[in-house]
Design goal:
2 copies of one chain form a homodimer.
Chain A: E1 3-10, E2 13-20, E3 23-27, E4 29-32, H1 44-49, E5 55-57, H2 59-64, H3 68-73, H4 77-81, E6 87-89, H5 93-99, E7 103-105, E8 110-113, E9 120-123, H6 125-135, E10 139-141, H7 153-172, E11 179-184, H8 190-203, E12 207-210, H9 219-232, E13 239-241, H10 247-254, E14 260-263, H11 265-271, E15 274-277, E16 280-283, H12 303-307, H13 310-318, H14 322-349, H15 352-367
Parallel strand pairs in A: 4-14, 5-6, 6-10, 10-11, 11-12, 12-13, 13-14
Antiparallel strand pairs in A: 1-2, 2-3, 7-8, 8-9, 15-16
Helix pairs in contact in A: 6-7, 7-8, 8-9, 10-15, 11-14, 13-14, 14-15
Chain lengths: 370, 370
């Protein structure tokens, strides 16, 4: 149900291809996030035109609303949201951790309250697999506990062991025709990361993700964990760094052998008027753009930059027009997907280190304040 | 700068064509409203694909934000909003009347406070023409006082006379290459409507609008005024009924010889989840649609109906996704533009009366509660 091959490598960076029945995902891949079944402000056909090859959707959100039974009844998530390419669904572990006001972790699962209406729910590994089966995603994730930061060694150990037990139960409940990825936890303890990776590799998943990162720890510590943990993963399986999308971090992580990324940064920033460009980050609300007839990014080929002036984009933003969110989201997603395309090209040509060096000042301008 | 010809008539209904340097407007025409320079939730390219031939934009809004100087500086409204077809701009008379918390009508103009920031402004006929010149619209409207309802005869008389004086001043300040329409006022007094029409016709405008209708008066009174006032207008000029878009009222008014309409109904209703269909009006939030895999309107060829289920549209609406507003707006605008296309077809075939009869039950289902 999922075939992965490495096409070429450049230092530790990998150019690969994941083949699913619904299409090929060229890696390193960026997965735009369609939390509720829609990449915010975008249509699925626009996502295809932008060159997105895989979307991520959230099990937690779709379970709470509209409910996985409804999505199964009307033909599954692909048909529901009109996206015919591959979909990866996360497991809800991170959302229970980050969104639910009250959660109780038990050995059997997690009790939590809905962030929508406060109703009480209990997610177990088996239910999470049932939900992902009903959604019919191409790649499912195991239910995990996202270890918080900071966490003492004992907590991190207990937590990774719980994640391993849940991973086993997810594997037993694996859906036919659906790939399943394990999630390495272990907090910021290298030896616990190794223990987690070893336990999961022993269970044999279709791919491996790193979880519990970018949860408040210093960047250097995160890079250390990504570099070390990535080196522990089977080289013939996809490596997925969950929830990370600052392009600095992406470059560092691709350099460490990571193949897959997801993040709401391009779309969330777009809605807030923050735009990533080849000349650095732009806050479109700035007064200086009010009569600027030039495009947002003179080096960009996206619909927004080919058609509209900064003056218009500023006006749409200031007027709170929906078109503002559309044009901004489209541009930022194009920037991200183009960045990944260029990263793949660099790995293919063996120029990834040079690419990383060239991109650093642009990324500093784009990301250093955020 | 504007050529109008009648192609055929059916009773009092007229099939016509307005030719502008930027394209042909087939009448009866619906003008979608792009208040701030964007038809809400839509891109201009989508509006073109839907078959819109002319857009309306608001002088009042664009004067306050971003300011007409800015739009002139960056190349005019067509370039700013990326709509290459004809644009009609209203004069701000109605917005000053309906949006400004405090307004003082003087002989020279109207003092009012911005609904955005409370700042004080003074609009005169000359300034309104300067603004519309800066925007570069294809059809401008004279600055008028929208007579409120109810208004006593003396007020309505004073008001229409003020509108005539302002219309003269607008004509003197007419922009080269821009058509200018007069606006008939007179409240609900037939003889005052006649006086207003006569005075304006004496000034010779490129087209004539009926203003001050649908401002709270009973429907029957409105129909009476539309029928009578329309009969007073020069048959060889376009007749525009301002701000009216309930399709019942549209049918009645086309039957009375009206050629042009504008209204926010399709887009505003769309954002509130109310959708017009060939089977009647649908509130997409209704529980019964939660697992309805069928399209919104089985007889509709729009992108929304060709791709998405009612279950998905309901989910998008309940999740407050931007895609909900996009898909709903697209559908309602398609419904409106298709309705106008079919009306023109009926007039062309001499079957307008039959069309009106056939559409009545559908429109009753679509509009009777609203």
């Amino acid at each position: 149900m999922l075939d992965f091959k490495i096409i070429s490598t450049d230092h530790n960076a990998r150019l690969g291809q994941i083949t699913t029945p619904r299409g090929i995902i060229n890696t390193p891949a960026f997965m735009p996030v369609g939390t509720n079944g829609s990449v915010k402000a975008m249509s699925p056909h626009e996502m295809k035109d932008l060159g997105a090859e895989v979307l991520l959707s959230n099990t937690y959100h779709l379970y709470l609303r509209p409910g996985h039974d409804i999505i199964r009844d009307v033909g599954g998530l692909h048909s529901f949201m009109q996206w015919s390419g591959p979909i990866l669904t996360d497991s809800g572990g991170f959302q229970v951790f980050s969104l639910s006001p009250l959660r109780k972790i038990k050995d059997d699962g997690v009790e939590f309250r809905s962030h929508i209406d406060g109703s009480l729910h209990f997610l177990t590994p088996e239910l999470v697999m049932e939900i992902q089966g009903a959604l019919g995603s191409d790649i499912a994730m195991v239910f995990d506990e996202c270890t918080p930061y900071p966490a003492d060694r004992e907590y991190a150990l207990q937590s990774l062991q719980l994640t391993t037990r849940w991973a086993k139960r997810c594997l037993e409940a694996k859906n036919e025709g659906q790939a399943l990825f394990g999630i390495v936890q272990g907090g910021m303890y290298a030896d616990l990361r190794k223990q987690s990776a070893d336990e999961l590799i022993g269970l044999d998943f279709d791919g491996y993700a790193l979880g519990g990162l970018s949860v408040g720890e210093p960047k250097e510590l995160m890079y250390e964990m990504v570099n070390y943990s990535s080196s522990l993963l089977p080289p013939d399986k996809p490596h997925y760094l969950m929830g990370i999308g600052d392009l600095f971090d992406v470059l560092e992580s691709v350099g460490a052998g990571i193949d897959m990324f997801d993040c709401v940064m391009p779309t969330r920033n777009a809605r807030n008027g923050t735009l990533f460009t080849s000349l650095g980050r732009i806050s479109i609300k700035r007064e200086e753009f009010k009569n600027d007839a030039g495009p947002l990014d003179p080096n960009c080929s996206c619909y927004t930059c080919q058609n509209y002036s900064k003056a218009f984009l500023r006006h749409m933003y200031m007027s709170r027009e929906i078109l503002s969110m559309r044009l901004n989201s489209l541009h930022n997603l194009h920037f991200y997907l183009e960045f990944f395309r260029r990263m793949r090209e660099a790995v293919s040509k063996g120029t990834f280190m040079q690419f990383r060096k060239e991109m650093t000042p642009i990324l500093q301008n784009n990301f250093h304040e955020g």
